[in-house]
Amino acid sequence: MQLHLACKRSLLVLLTACALPALSMAQQAPEDQLLRLIKMPLKNIFVEYPNKTSHNILDSLDARLTPRDLHPAFYGSFDWHSSVHSHWMLAEILSTYPDISARGEIIAAFDEHFTEEKMRGEAAYFDRKLSGNYERTYGWAWLIKLSEQLHHLAEHSTDKALQEKAKSWATHVDILSDKIVAKWKAYLTKMTYPNRIGTHSNSAFALAFAIDFARARGDKEFEQALIAKARQLHLGDKKAPAEWEPNATDFFSPTLMVADLMTRVLPQREYVRWLSTYFTPQGINRLCEKPVVSDLTDYTIVHLVGLAYTRAWTMARISGYLPQGHPLKARFARTSAQMYAHGMDQIFRSDYGGDHWLATFARYAEEVMKANKIKH
After folding, report:
1. pLDDT tens digits for 135-144?
2. Distance between CA 237 and CA 319 in Å, rounded?
C-alpha cells in the first residue's frame, strides 16, 4: 500500500511537471505557479533520504536509527525544520484554497503524519539526552507556526469536513507544540544576547513568529515575555551595518529581521523614531541589491535564493507598518516585489538543495506581500 501511494505521488508530480510549459515564472499563470510550488513540499515530506538529522549520537545502537525512527512524522524534506515548515505551507494552502486540486493529497498526508501516536513520538525526541535544545529556535518557530495555522483552519474554515479534520490535526500537533512553548518560556529567562546571524539560529526571526503565535493563541504571558525580550535585545540598536550583508550562505538579512520583529513590538510612532537611527543610507542601498546566486545546485549558496524571499517579506511588512509619506514606505514596497520576482526566477532550477525548502519561503513571502497590499 505504501509503495502504491508513493508511486501515485511520484506519477502526479511527474505529470504536473511535464504538463507545464518551460516558461519563466513571470510568464506562467498564477494557478500554474501555485501548483508547481505545492508539488515540492507534497513530494518532499515523504522523501527520507538524503537527510541531515543533526542528531547527537549517544552510542552505537543510537547510530543505527533512521530519520523515520527519530522523527515519525517530520522525517522527510532533508531536515526536520524543512519538513515542519513544508507541512505549514500545505496547511496554509488548505486554509486559503480549500478546493484546490491537491486537497485530497494534502489531507491524506496530514492524516498519515498528524496522528496522536506520531506526535507523541515527535515530542518524546525532545526528552532524549542531549536533545532538549534540538532545533532551538528556528525549528521551534516553524513548529508553532504550523500549530497556529492548523488552529486557524479549525476555527475559521467554512468547510465542515475540513474543519473537523483540522481540529484533530491541531489537537495532535499540540502534543508537540505545547512542549516547545514550555521550553521556549524557560529559554527566554536565560537568553542574554541576540543571535545576529543570517541562517537558522537568527533570533529575531524566531521571536517574531513566536509573538504571532502567542497573539493568535491568546497566550498573554508568553506574548509579554517575548515583547520584553525583544525590547531588551534590540531597542538600543543603532546604525546597523547592513552594508556588510549578505554573508556567503545567508537566507535571512539579520538587520531586516530585527526591523521586521520590531513592527510587532513598538507602536507605530515609536517604531518610526527607532527606525530613523537604525539603518544607514549605505545599508539600505545594499539591502535593495538583488542577491547574486552563483551556483543554484550548491546546497548552501542556494540559501541566497531564500534571502530574496525573506527580504521580500520583511520589506513588505516594514513598508506596510510605516505611515504614508515615509521615505522607506514606497522604496521597500517596490524592492519587496523585485526581490520576490528574483526568487521566482530561480526557484525551480535549484535541485534538491533548494527544492526541499524554498517553496515555503516563496509562499510565506507572497502572503505577507498580499497582506500589505504589495503586488508582484
Report:
1. 999 999 999 9
2. 19
